[in-house]
Amino acid sequence: MGLVAAFLDGDRHSIAAYGQSDSPGNRPLDGDTVFEIGSITKVFTALLFADMVLRGELAPDDPAAKYLPASVRMPDFEGAPITLIDLATYTSGLPRMPSNFAPKDWSNPYIDYTPERLYDYLSNHKLAHKPGKHYEYANLGFGLLGHILELRAGKSYEELVVSRICAPLGMEDTRITLSSSMQRRLARGHSATLAPVANWDYSAFAGAGAFRSTANDLMKFLRICMNPAEGPLASALQMTLSERRPMMEERDVALGWFISSQFGDEVIWKSGGTGGYAAFIGYSTKTWRNCIVLSNAADYDPNIALGTHLINAAYPLAKIRREVPVDPAVLATYAGRYELTPDFVLTARADGGRLFVQWTGQEELEAFAESETDFFSRVGNAQITFARSGGGMVSSLVLHQNGKDLPGRRLP
Predict the structure, then answer these.
(1) Dihedral of the alpha carbons of 109, 344, 40, 283, in degrees to the nearest 10
(2) Which residues contact 229 (CB under 8 A, 6 or more apart)?
């Protein structure tokens, strides 16, 4: 794997690279190496939305249903509709992912999720939360927003972002569809276990995570983000930070962005990840320290930790977790189903000297042992501790994630 980090200091910028691109010919990593940037795409979607609002093409409080085909029965909550600003601020009331998301190929999971499947889901979904009142990470919401913007403009999502954001900023290496030059400079993606993986392609969800870019191109974007009073898109960029809604303690969301308020600082940032890449962009509004970190491995949480630490050293670096061997016979005792909530079951499966876990509605992942009872995931910051009853049988587990400990009893 490899990392490229970029920093702005006034009119100067610097690039640091480590590791390998694993591209054909193993081209050295540099500021022009192409990476998938995943959910940093959401910032482009939010900025495009702001630009269209300022052009009078739509309004923030427009119901999303206004721009969808009449055949789509958009869900509401006791008559309260989902608005465009709700979609842009992660507060639509929709879940992170639709329940009918069932890829034929998990190595490229979004390519077959079409607008027709999106419409079918929306027409049959019931909201559990009032729009505007509840934060939930929003691949579904931003995929829908990007789709609405292209319907309104009569152009593809990529055409809109390129013409209204990339072209004015001179970002020639930020695209969904790779040019031959970008293809030659594309770093090969790797899973969290450093196995080479396929690139991801998108259909209806392009607005959630489809773009690829380089450190040099993202530096052009970061420069205007840090000083939106100058240059093209200034008013739209200011609008993306004008509406803020609570996410969790000491963290808010804006349009596309996350805002962390810790250690006497305010950090505006966004991360992104696909099956083989992790990305981070951010800056401090107090010190103006900033960075971009691009990785060709799916090390999402360590990448975020590194990015925030480089902006403000008070943010801790990720803990380095070391794998240890465990007797296959011990691993076999953990196989089973564990109920964490009535709708959330973790299934553990042993395969020789390896343990695999799968959460309801998610892809199976490998769990790596830190000890005989403690395991960790390399995809997301999650750990599992298994517990035995007085008779020595494995009776329960605890899922440690996002600062919470969620117990789960073993099902018969």
Answers:
(1) -160
(2) none
Show Cβ contacts of residue 102 under 8 Å, excluding neighbours closer than 6 positions: none
Residue whose C-alpha is closest to residue 355's, from 395, 320, 327: 327
Tell the residue number behind the tokens 């959630």, with chain if given.
208
Question: Quick one: fold of 2-311?
Answer: Beta-lactamase (3.40.710)
Tens of pLDDT, residue by residue over 360-372, are 878 888 999 999 9
pTM value is 0.86
pLDDT tens digits for range 31-51: 999 999 999 999 999 999 999
Measured CA to CA, the distance from residue 22 to residue 311 in angstroms comes to: 28
Do 337 and 347 contact (CB within 8 A), yes or no?
A: yes
In the chain, CATH 2.40.128.50 sits at 328-410
Nearest CA to 34 among 296, 282, 274, 303? 296
Query: What's the rounded Cα separation, in Å, for the pair 124 and 316?
Result: 43
